[in-house]
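Fold sample X.
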Amino acid sequence: MFKRKNSLNIYSKIRIYFWPKKGFLRNFSYYWKRLIRIPDTSFSISMGFSVGFFVAFTPFFGLHFIISGIISWLLKVNIFSSIVGNFFASFISYPLMAFGMFFISNENNVEGWFNYFVYFAKTALPIFSGILIIGFVLSFICYFLINYVIEVFKNKLIRGK
């Protein structure tokens, strides 16, 4: 019933996965509407979003969704909003971390374990400590912003009924 008349080839499926046919703005608005319409308290949704937003600024590449889900589960806040917040923050955090690593790290030849740890301490630790401060401030701002938007939306829904 919901299948295409002409199925897509593998190239088209990969292209649509990385560059959606209707554009990124449509995907953004879809997830934004899903986030606002979650049937949960505004505290839970906004706290989950800010947890996910903060976790995206940590140096654990590839584990952000898992870590934000676990932290949200432990704090008993909305897990889906945490994943959405992590998704949105990745567009900010990854370029900042790449920019920092590109301009601060200038040693390319690292020999031996001790030199590797020295190299890590000189380059990665300052970048990640700075990026975590930025992540904390932005997630704090996101909490209040998302909380306000959800409260306004839910009050509009209640008055509309």
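Fold sample Y, listed below.
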Amino acid sequence: MKMLFRYMLALAVGVVSICGVSADAPTAEISFARQVVDLGVLSHSDDKQVVAVEYTNTGDVPLVVLEVRTTCSCTTVKYERKKLLPKQSAYLTIEMDPSKAPVGNFYRVLQVVSTAQTKVNNITLRAVIQ
């Protein structure tokens, strides 16, 4: 019985390795026009800062941005939740409210979760808040 179990396990591992994802399998890939957004020097009394960051599907299959995670309530991101075909581009619209940001060096990482092979990609938002 143990021998049969070992044989079946070895067979299953072999099938998975043969049928698994190969390096040539088509995947979605995400590429950003810029990964660092520098807002410069801002005052707490400044208006909300709005920046659009272009991203492109550089892969072979459709790409979907599933979520964009922010680390503070002063930053929000808007984007379309739709399939982006290969070579197509879209925008993340980042809005930062200086009145809600802490004084000093402002540095936040936005996590872009997508169906790309890398799953999570980062965009850095920075400023100096006075």
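Sample Y note: The two ends are 73 Å apart (CA to CA).
Also: The first helix runs from residue 2 to 19.
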